[in-house]
Design a protein that fits this description.
three-stranded antiparallel β-sheet, alpha+beta, elongated, 23% strand, Rossmann fold
């Protein structure tokens, strides 16, 4: 998802695979399919501004299986297969997820303290449906495994 030449990256993976070997990648489904992450991204974009849009939306850019399949085929891979599943992101609290989403990305140096605190407050509300009675966060996340043969 973070390669400027996605088909080229897949070609390189295929190049180092043995004949008949398998190339596999995991990608997240589209943002519209993310029950919990959609509201979180809305909060980040609302308080982080336009530069957040490109960064946050890049995580979900390869959720279109038609696009991913065509990239595999363009890289000369065959027998492309996909499987999808929903997993769960678990953190001790919603704040732990928010801190990770901000501090482990370029957003850390770009947000004012006021914007950071606003994100924390609004994200707690947005993530309330995924917060357990004892305050833990259990956030669904949908992804795809894409495999092909060289």
């Amino acid at each position: 998802m973070f390669f400027s030449d996605r088909a080229g990256a897949l070609r390189e993976m295929a190049r180092v695979a043995t004949d008949g070997g398998t190339v596999a990648v995991q990608v997240w489904d589209q943002l519209t399919a993310q029950e919990g992450y959609g509201p979180l991204i809305d909060v980040l974009v609302r308080h982080g501004g336009p530069e957040v849009v490109d960064l946050e939306h890049s995580y979900w850019a390869l959720g279109d299986l038609g696009l991913v399949t065509s990239l595999f085929e363009a890289a000369g891979l065959r027998e492309v297969a996909t499987s999808s599943r929903v997993g769960t992101v678990r953190t001790p609290t919603p704040d732990d997820l928010i801190r990770t989403e901000i501090e482990a990305t370029p957003l850390a140096g770009r947000l004012s303290e006021e914007a950071y605190q606003s994100i924390l407050a609004d994200a707690r509300d947005a993530l309330r449906p995924f917060t357990t009675g004892d305050g833990r966060l259990e956030l669904p996340i949908r992804g795809h495994l894409v495999t092909a043969r060289r």
